[in-house]
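Hi V.,

You were right to ask for the full record rather than a summary. Here it is.
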Amino acid sequence: MHHFEYRDGVLFAEDVSVTALAEEYGTPLYIYSAATFRRHFKAFDSAFKGLDHLTCYSVKANSNLSILKLLAAEGAGMDIVSGGELFRALKAGVSPEKIVYSGVGKRDSEIRDALKAGILMFNVESVAELERINSVAGELGMKANVSFRINPDVDPQTHPYISTGMKENKFGLDIENSLKAYQRAAEMDHVEPVGMDCHIGSQLTSIEPFLEALDKLLHFNSQLKKMGIIIQYLDLGGGLGIAYDAEEPPHPSEFGQALSEKLQGLPLKVIFEPGRVIAGNAGILVTKVVYTKSNPTKNFLIVDAGMNDLIRPSLYGSYHRIGEVELSGRQHKPFDVVGPICESGDFLARDRELPAVDQGERLVVYSAGAYGFTMASNYNTRPRACELLVDGDTVHVARKRETYEDLVANEL
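Predicted structure:
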């Protein structure tokens, strides 16, 4: 079942009219479907039911407390990359032993808070970070569980900005230096090497890069065993893509079957860190056409959502499907859908065939549930959008729209 669908020509989010929501809460407006979040998490998690595993939702994809709480209730752990995300996960009631801490720039205070909380493990990205974790854990009289993020130099065949497993990327350690890092960790008093980690990129539409990386990790694990280092966890990260346009990403069940064949019988608990595949198509962004404008070469729809609300098209050249909130049946023609930000790069779509909508009518931007609001900013002193979570016919205000007073509240 699709939870964003048209009924008598009007778009609904589950059992609630999007028109009614936009009229009550204004635009730009993020709307999330609780049923879609649950369905996507279950579809992913159940794909690995034959393996000892933990599915840690990637908080950076959509970090709203209501979403984290919903997923935690489904049994999700969390993959975090900052002290703020740790705070959010704990605030949402996530069990600390289900939290994995990734990220290249962990500060002392963040390491300290994570140790005190009792998280499952740190995914360490450099030897300098390992030394720091050992030092902070020593100050607390604790021992930190660590895993090293191994960079397998696998081409994920995705956008360069979201490719993370090539040797030129800033993430992780190459194979040779990883072996040295594990040896160093084994000699330390306040860290315990318990896992190995790999994340090669985001929006992957083939399982082949995952399998290539997995082969390298399993070979690496055999080298660790020869060194007397026995690990418990294999963290394969996230990155499984979704269909924004014509992509045909593998279903999680296909991914699960391929991994199960390689991992069956190995004494490892597998950790996954899905984000986009859970959240992406569980959310939409609703925007209103403020002005229409034409010149000899272009037709423009100037809308009230800009790159500060959804930066993916401007940052990555990403495609998001756009449609009407209320179907008009009008003839299509090419439009640039642009926002109010004072930047030439402020657009949601270019040369897109859309109905000839009028000023005051509303458009919907699909697949906006991941890396939408979490990447939003206040550029041009614009308040960030309201976020709604719809569950059947119930509407929950997951985040109130910011006010101008909110924007200056911390300024002196």
